[in-house]
Amino acid sequence: MREKTGLILNMQRMSTEDGPGLRTTVFFKGCPLRCRWCHNPESLSYKRELEWFDDRCIGCRTCEKICPVKAIGFENQKLVVDYSLCTRCMKCAESCPANALEAKGVFWEAGGLADELAKDHAYFGEEGGVTLSGGETLAQPDFAVALCEKLHQKGIQVAIDTCGMVDFSILKRVFPYTDIFLYDIKIMDSKLHKKHAGAGNEKILSNLRLLAAMIENSDKNLWIRTPIIPGATDSHENIRQIADFLIAEAGTVLSRWELCAFNNMCESKYKRLGYNWDYAGKEKLTRSHLDELLKAAVKNENLRDRTFITGSAKLEV
Ligand code: SF4
Ligand code: SF4
Fold first, then answer.
1. Is 60 exceeded by the pLDDT of residue 38?
2. Which residues, judged by CB distance below 6 Å to any ligand atom, belong to the binding site of ligand 2?
3. Topology annotation, domain 49-104
Protein backbone atom coordinates (compact mmCIF):
# COMPACT_ATOMS: atom_id res chain seq x y z
CA MET A 1 0.00 0.00 0.00
CA ARG A 2 1.25 3.52 -0.82
CA GLU A 3 2.38 5.63 2.14
CA LYS A 4 0.20 8.63 3.06
CA THR A 5 1.91 11.87 2.01
CA GLY A 6 1.30 15.29 3.54
CA LEU A 7 2.45 18.87 2.98
CA ILE A 8 4.34 20.22 5.98
CA LEU A 9 5.42 23.81 6.46
CA ASN A 10 8.14 23.23 9.06
CA MET A 11 9.03 21.74 12.43
CA GLN A 12 9.88 23.60 15.59
CA ARG A 13 12.03 21.72 18.05
CA MET A 14 12.20 22.29 21.85
CA SER A 15 8.87 24.11 21.72
CA THR A 16 7.26 25.02 25.06
CA GLU A 17 4.07 26.73 23.90
CA ASP A 18 2.06 23.96 22.25
CA GLY A 19 1.17 21.62 25.09
CA PRO A 20 2.90 20.30 28.20
CA GLY A 21 6.66 19.81 28.60
CA LEU A 22 9.25 20.06 25.84
CA ARG A 23 7.84 19.27 22.42
CA THR A 24 8.44 19.19 18.70
CA THR A 25 5.69 21.06 16.86
CA VAL A 26 4.92 20.11 13.26
CA PHE A 27 3.13 22.78 11.23
CA PHE A 28 0.79 21.44 8.54
CA LYS A 29 0.04 23.52 5.45
CA GLY A 30 -3.50 24.57 4.62
CA CYS A 31 -6.37 25.91 6.72
CA PRO A 32 -10.15 26.20 6.14
CA LEU A 33 -10.38 29.43 8.20
CA ARG A 34 -9.03 32.89 7.39
CA CYS A 35 -8.53 34.56 10.76
CA ARG A 36 -7.61 38.19 10.09
CA TRP A 37 -4.87 38.09 12.72
CA CYS A 38 -3.33 34.72 11.67
CA HIS A 39 0.25 34.42 12.92
CA ASN A 40 1.23 31.78 10.37
CA PRO A 41 0.27 33.25 6.97
CA GLU A 42 2.61 30.83 5.21
CA SER A 43 0.47 27.94 6.50
CA LEU A 44 -2.88 29.15 5.09
CA SER A 45 -2.54 27.87 1.52
CA TYR A 46 -2.75 24.14 0.76
CA LYS A 47 -0.07 24.66 -1.89
CA ARG A 48 3.65 25.39 -1.75
CA GLU A 49 4.55 29.09 -1.78
CA LEU A 50 7.59 31.34 -2.13
CA GLU A 51 8.96 33.62 0.57
CA TRP A 52 11.23 36.42 -0.70
CA PHE A 53 13.92 37.95 1.54
CA ASP A 54 14.64 41.39 0.08
CA ASP A 55 17.68 41.87 2.33
CA ARG A 56 19.36 38.84 0.72
CA CYS A 57 18.36 39.53 -2.90
CA ILE A 58 21.21 40.75 -5.15
CA GLY A 59 18.87 41.69 -8.01
CA CYS A 60 20.36 39.22 -10.54
CA ARG A 61 16.90 38.30 -11.93
CA THR A 62 17.92 34.63 -12.36
CA CYS A 63 14.54 33.68 -10.91
CA GLU A 64 12.68 35.73 -13.51
CA LYS A 65 14.70 34.25 -16.39
CA ILE A 66 14.41 30.64 -15.25
CA CYS A 67 10.66 30.58 -14.55
CA PRO A 68 9.14 28.42 -17.33
CA VAL A 69 5.72 30.13 -17.13
CA LYS A 70 6.81 33.76 -16.58
CA ALA A 71 5.15 33.93 -13.16
CA ILE A 72 7.86 36.09 -11.56
CA GLY A 73 8.28 39.79 -12.07
CA PHE A 74 9.58 42.85 -10.24
CA GLU A 75 7.48 45.89 -9.37
CA ASN A 76 9.19 48.85 -7.72
CA GLN A 77 12.18 46.58 -7.02
CA LYS A 78 9.88 44.15 -5.20
CA LEU A 79 9.57 40.55 -6.35
CA VAL A 80 6.00 39.60 -7.26
CA VAL A 81 4.75 36.05 -7.96
CA ASP A 82 1.64 35.53 -10.04
CA TYR A 83 0.21 32.43 -8.37
CA SER A 84 -2.46 32.11 -11.06
CA LEU A 85 0.40 31.08 -13.39
CA CYS A 86 2.89 29.51 -10.95
CA THR A 87 3.09 25.71 -11.15
CA ARG A 88 5.06 25.42 -7.85
CA CYS A 89 8.00 23.80 -9.64
CA MET A 90 10.38 25.71 -7.29
CA LYS A 91 13.01 26.08 -10.02
CA CYS A 92 13.32 29.75 -9.05
CA ALA A 93 14.13 28.99 -5.41
CA GLU A 94 16.57 26.23 -6.40
CA SER A 95 18.46 28.52 -8.77
CA CYS A 96 18.61 31.67 -6.64
CA PRO A 97 22.32 32.26 -5.93
CA ALA A 98 21.63 34.25 -2.77
CA ASN A 99 19.04 32.03 -1.07
CA ALA A 100 16.68 34.98 -1.25
CA LEU A 101 13.76 32.81 -2.35
CA GLU A 102 12.61 30.07 -0.01
CA ALA A 103 10.13 27.35 -0.91
CA LYS A 104 7.49 27.02 1.80
CA GLY A 105 6.17 23.48 2.13
CA VAL A 106 7.82 20.04 2.04
CA PHE A 107 6.12 16.75 1.19
CA TRP A 108 6.64 13.99 3.76
CA GLU A 109 5.51 10.39 4.00
CA ALA A 110 3.90 9.59 7.36
CA GLY A 111 6.41 6.86 8.23
CA GLY A 112 9.43 8.99 7.33
CA LEU A 113 8.14 11.94 9.34
CA ALA A 114 7.37 9.74 12.35
CA ASP A 115 10.96 8.37 12.22
CA GLU A 116 12.33 11.91 12.02
CA LEU A 117 10.25 13.02 15.01
CA ALA A 118 11.26 9.98 17.03
CA LYS A 119 14.85 11.33 16.98
CA ASP A 120 13.67 14.00 19.45
CA HIS A 121 12.45 11.41 21.96
CA ALA A 122 15.38 12.21 24.28
CA TYR A 123 14.03 15.59 25.34
CA PHE A 124 10.32 14.73 25.49
CA GLY A 125 10.66 13.28 29.00
CA GLU A 126 7.48 12.22 30.83
CA GLU A 127 5.39 15.26 29.93
CA GLY A 128 6.49 16.26 26.40
CA GLY A 129 5.92 14.86 22.93
CA VAL A 130 4.86 15.92 19.46
CA THR A 131 2.23 18.56 18.68
CA LEU A 132 0.62 18.64 15.25
CA SER A 133 -0.39 22.19 14.41
CA GLY A 134 -0.81 24.40 11.37
CA GLY A 135 -2.57 25.60 9.37
CA GLU A 136 -5.12 22.97 10.26
CA THR A 137 -3.74 19.51 11.02
CA LEU A 138 -7.00 17.73 10.27
CA ALA A 139 -7.42 19.36 6.86
CA GLN A 140 -5.05 16.59 5.63
CA PRO A 141 -7.03 13.84 7.39
CA ASP A 142 -5.55 10.63 5.95
CA PHE A 143 -2.00 11.84 6.50
CA ALA A 144 -2.77 13.15 10.01
CA VAL A 145 -4.37 9.87 11.08
CA ALA A 146 -1.47 7.81 9.64
CA LEU A 147 1.13 10.04 11.34
CA CYS A 148 -0.65 9.98 14.72
CA GLU A 149 -0.95 6.20 14.56
CA LYS A 150 2.76 5.79 13.81
CA LEU A 151 3.77 8.17 16.62
CA HIS A 152 1.43 6.35 18.99
CA GLN A 153 3.01 3.02 18.04
CA LYS A 154 6.42 4.49 18.93
CA GLY A 155 5.12 5.47 22.38
CA ILE A 156 5.30 9.21 21.66
CA GLN A 157 2.68 11.42 23.28
CA VAL A 158 0.65 13.26 20.61
CA ALA A 159 -1.18 16.58 20.89
CA ILE A 160 -3.38 17.90 18.09
CA ASP A 161 -3.93 21.61 17.72
CA THR A 162 -7.18 22.14 15.82
CA CYS A 163 -9.51 24.97 14.90
CA GLY A 164 -12.34 22.45 15.00
CA MET A 165 -13.58 23.34 11.49
CA VAL A 166 -13.56 19.74 10.26
CA ASP A 167 -16.03 16.89 9.91
CA PHE A 168 -16.49 15.18 13.26
CA SER A 169 -15.73 11.83 11.63
CA ILE A 170 -12.09 13.00 11.30
CA LEU A 171 -11.84 13.83 15.01
CA LYS A 172 -13.23 10.35 15.68
CA ARG A 173 -10.61 8.72 13.44
CA VAL A 174 -7.71 10.50 15.08
CA PHE A 175 -9.06 10.13 18.64
CA PRO A 176 -7.51 6.73 19.52
CA TYR A 177 -3.97 7.99 18.75
CA THR A 178 -4.22 11.44 20.36
CA ASP A 179 -3.42 12.21 23.99
CA ILE A 180 -4.22 15.93 24.14
CA PHE A 181 -6.58 18.06 22.07
CA LEU A 182 -5.63 21.75 21.88
CA TYR A 183 -8.92 23.19 20.62
CA ASP A 184 -9.45 26.81 19.56
CA ILE A 185 -12.57 28.70 20.57
CA LYS A 186 -12.24 32.24 19.32
CA ILE A 187 -15.58 34.03 19.15
CA MET A 188 -19.02 32.89 20.38
CA ASP A 189 -21.15 35.11 18.13
CA SER A 190 -21.28 33.24 14.82
CA LYS A 191 -21.73 36.40 12.71
CA LEU A 192 -18.66 37.97 14.30
CA HIS A 193 -16.80 34.69 13.88
CA LYS A 194 -17.59 34.78 10.18
CA LYS A 195 -16.47 38.41 9.93
CA HIS A 196 -13.12 37.84 11.67
CA ALA A 197 -12.33 34.18 10.87
CA GLY A 198 -14.00 33.68 7.50
CA ALA A 199 -16.72 31.20 8.54
CA GLY A 200 -19.45 30.79 11.15
CA ASN A 201 -18.71 28.76 14.30
CA GLU A 202 -21.63 26.28 14.43
CA LYS A 203 -19.56 23.28 13.36
CA ILE A 204 -16.70 24.22 15.73
CA LEU A 205 -19.01 24.44 18.76
CA SER A 206 -20.93 21.29 17.90
CA ASN A 207 -17.67 19.35 17.37
CA LEU A 208 -16.41 20.49 20.77
CA ARG A 209 -19.60 19.21 22.46
CA LEU A 210 -19.16 15.80 20.80
CA LEU A 211 -15.42 15.68 21.48
CA ALA A 212 -15.91 16.56 25.15
CA ALA A 213 -18.40 13.70 25.50
CA MET A 214 -15.83 11.28 24.04
CA ILE A 215 -13.06 12.61 26.29
CA GLU A 216 -15.33 12.16 29.35
CA ASN A 217 -14.97 8.39 29.07
CA SER A 218 -11.26 8.32 28.26
CA ASP A 219 -7.80 9.22 29.53
CA LYS A 220 -7.42 12.07 26.98
CA ASN A 221 -6.95 15.73 27.87
CA LEU A 222 -8.67 18.84 26.53
CA TRP A 223 -7.05 22.27 26.41
CA ILE A 224 -8.95 25.23 25.00
CA ARG A 225 -7.09 28.14 23.44
CA THR A 226 -8.57 31.58 22.80
CA PRO A 227 -6.45 34.13 20.94
CA ILE A 228 -6.92 37.56 22.52
CA ILE A 229 -7.06 39.87 19.51
CA PRO A 230 -7.68 43.62 19.69
CA GLY A 231 -11.08 44.55 18.30
CA ALA A 232 -12.00 40.95 17.46
CA THR A 233 -12.01 38.60 20.47
CA ASP A 234 -11.00 40.87 23.36
CA SER A 235 -14.40 42.00 24.65
CA HIS A 236 -15.56 41.04 28.16
CA GLU A 237 -18.79 39.82 26.62
CA ASN A 238 -17.02 37.37 24.28
CA ILE A 239 -14.80 36.01 27.02
CA ARG A 240 -17.77 35.59 29.41
CA GLN A 241 -19.75 33.79 26.68
CA ILE A 242 -16.86 31.41 26.01
CA ALA A 243 -16.49 30.76 29.77
CA ASP A 244 -20.21 29.92 30.08
CA PHE A 245 -20.04 27.62 27.05
CA LEU A 246 -16.98 25.80 28.40
CA ILE A 247 -18.56 25.27 31.81
CA ALA A 248 -21.79 23.98 30.26
CA GLU A 249 -20.30 21.77 27.54
CA ALA A 250 -16.82 20.74 28.67
CA GLY A 251 -16.63 21.69 32.36
CA THR A 252 -15.91 18.19 33.58
CA VAL A 253 -13.14 17.39 31.09
CA LEU A 254 -11.40 20.71 30.54
CA SER A 255 -7.79 20.62 31.83
CA ARG A 256 -6.69 24.10 30.81
CA TRP A 257 -7.99 27.27 29.13
CA GLU A 258 -5.33 29.53 27.65
CA LEU A 259 -5.99 33.16 26.75
CA CYS A 260 -3.21 33.71 24.20
CA ALA A 261 -2.16 37.36 23.98
CA PHE A 262 -1.90 38.93 20.51
CA ASN A 263 1.60 39.60 19.19
CA ASN A 264 2.80 41.30 16.03
CA MET A 265 5.93 39.24 15.38
CA CYS A 266 4.54 37.82 12.13
CA GLU A 267 4.30 41.19 10.36
CA SER A 268 7.54 40.69 8.41
CA LYS A 269 6.36 37.25 7.21
CA TYR A 270 3.34 38.85 5.53
CA LYS A 271 5.67 41.27 3.74
CA ARG A 272 8.01 38.49 2.57
CA LEU A 273 5.06 36.51 1.17
CA GLY A 274 3.70 39.61 -0.55
CA TYR A 275 0.41 39.65 1.43
CA ASN A 276 -1.27 42.50 3.29
CA TRP A 277 -2.02 42.11 7.00
CA ASP A 278 -5.01 43.80 8.66
CA TYR A 279 -3.03 44.02 11.91
CA ALA A 280 0.12 45.64 10.52
CA GLY A 281 1.43 48.18 13.03
CA LYS A 282 -0.99 47.06 15.75
CA GLU A 283 0.53 47.07 19.24
CA LYS A 284 0.33 44.31 21.81
CA LEU A 285 -2.37 44.51 24.49
CA THR A 286 -1.60 46.07 27.86
CA ARG A 287 -1.14 43.90 30.95
CA SER A 288 -4.09 45.62 32.65
CA HIS A 289 -6.41 44.79 29.72
CA LEU A 290 -5.28 41.15 29.75
CA ASP A 291 -5.76 40.97 33.54
CA GLU A 292 -9.30 42.36 33.23
CA LEU A 293 -10.14 39.69 30.65
CA LEU A 294 -8.71 36.99 32.89
CA LYS A 295 -10.97 38.26 35.69
CA ALA A 296 -13.97 38.09 33.35
CA ALA A 297 -12.96 34.57 32.31
CA VAL A 298 -12.77 33.20 35.85
CA LYS A 299 -15.93 34.81 37.25
CA ASN A 300 -17.21 31.28 37.52
CA GLU A 301 -14.77 29.94 40.09
CA ASN A 302 -14.91 26.51 38.48
CA LEU A 303 -12.48 27.87 35.89
CA ARG A 304 -10.19 29.72 38.30
CA ASP A 305 -7.41 27.18 38.71
CA ARG A 306 -7.31 26.13 35.05
CA THR A 307 -7.36 29.46 33.16
CA PHE A 308 -4.14 31.24 32.22
CA ILE A 309 -2.84 34.11 30.10
CA THR A 310 -0.03 33.10 27.74
CA GLY A 311 2.27 35.34 25.69
CA SER A 312 3.51 38.80 26.50
CA ALA A 313 1.91 42.22 27.03
CA LYS A 314 2.89 45.67 25.80
CA LEU A 315 5.63 47.26 27.89
CA GLU A 316 4.15 50.17 29.84
CA VAL A 317 6.24 52.98 31.32
S1 SF4 B 1 17.44 34.91 -8.23
FE2 SF4 B 1 17.44 35.40 -6.05
S3 SF4 B 1 18.95 37.03 -5.81
FE4 SF4 B 1 18.47 36.90 -8.02
S5 SF4 B 1 16.78 38.42 -8.28
FE6 SF4 B 1 15.80 36.42 -7.91
S7 SF4 B 1 15.47 36.42 -5.68
FE8 SF4 B 1 16.95 38.03 -6.08
S1 SF4 C 1 7.84 28.01 -8.55
FE2 SF4 C 1 8.26 27.57 -10.74
S3 SF4 C 1 6.45 28.38 -11.79
FE4 SF4 C 1 6.43 29.27 -9.74
S5 SF4 C 1 7.48 31.23 -9.92
FE6 SF4 C 1 9.05 29.72 -9.33
S7 SF4 C 1 9.91 28.97 -11.27
FE8 SF4 C 1 7.99 30.03 -11.76
1. yes
2. 67, 69, 71-72, 81, 86-92
3. Alpha-Beta Plaits (3.30.70)
